[in-house]
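Deviation from plan, reported transparently: adenosine-5'-diphosphate complex.
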Amino acid sequence: MEFCKNKLKLKLDFVNDFDLEKQARDLGIKIWQTPSFLFIVFGVTAVIIMLATYFISKNYESPEVLVIAECLVVVVVFIVEMLVNKFIVQLTRLNKMKSEFVSIASHQLRTPLSAIKWETELLLTKFKKGLDKKQLKNIENIYSINQRMIRLVNDLLDVARIDQNRLILIKQKVDFLKIVEEVMEEIIPKAKLRNIEIEIDTKKELPMVVGDKEKVQIVVENLFDNAVKYTNSGGKIRVKISKNKQYLEFEIKDNGVGIPEEQIGRVFEKFFRSDNATRYQTEGTGLGLYIAKNIVEQLGGKIWFKSIENVGSVFSFSLPISR
Ligand code: ADP
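Because the crystal trials were delayed, the predicted structure below was used instead.
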């Protein structure tokens, strides 16, 4: 059964590979620029060259003609190779430019966003007395929208760093339980607003792990954020931290919307959002898990999950215990 399923999937993948229109739409390019179109052109060229060589060598018996024909084949293959090479260099350059643009734009956006943060914080603390209820509510809204933008810009910066192999993690001894508790303090009020219960199961004494405090916090925040975001009101989230050989494992289980079976393989892809999640929750970028996976793996850990649509999800990751 499993074998038939895999065979069918392979066949479907193969058919999809030659759906030129779909590929052009997905990649945002013209049909003649799609890799499959180029593949077909190269294939046809190779066949023509082979046939031409065959007929030339058949009709002319002299070795000179054969040598010339072979030289021509080599020249054609060489030209094709050069074209492909040029194309790849161009693509790599474009990809690099895109990452640099995202990186520069995010850096530039951070300064004004931080300024808005400080100003609104000042209004909400020092000048709070001079504000009426409605004004206070408006400023609180500005503050939380600004926080969301700061998070988005930080995510984009991290993605650009990952793409350029420049995500630097400072490996140090980290108190993992403390990070989880700090994140929970922030997330519990949000969960309560939607009547979602959060329960934690852990020992009080846990070994330190190898991590980068700020980045590990990002991973934990992302998983908590998703669990709350994709769980219906009245739902339940269970967190478990346990020791498994040389690793500390974190597990977060929810009874939310889950992920459709056919999309499970794409969850850690950059910008991926499942169809049901997009319908259920418009807010989201599809960057959180991509960043989390890169951070965890760079720290020597692993990240994985199980999910069933309309039943729930369990996301887990491990980090090496510090010696
Ligand atoms: P997003 O900003 O969309 O939440 P993520 O990278 O954090 O981006 O997650 C990628 C996608 O994985 C989500 O859009 C959603 O489809 C799916 N997903 C992640 N966590 C959960 C969860 N706990 N329950 C259901 N779906 C989830």
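The chain has a mean pLDDT of 89. We consider this an acceptable substitute for the interim report.
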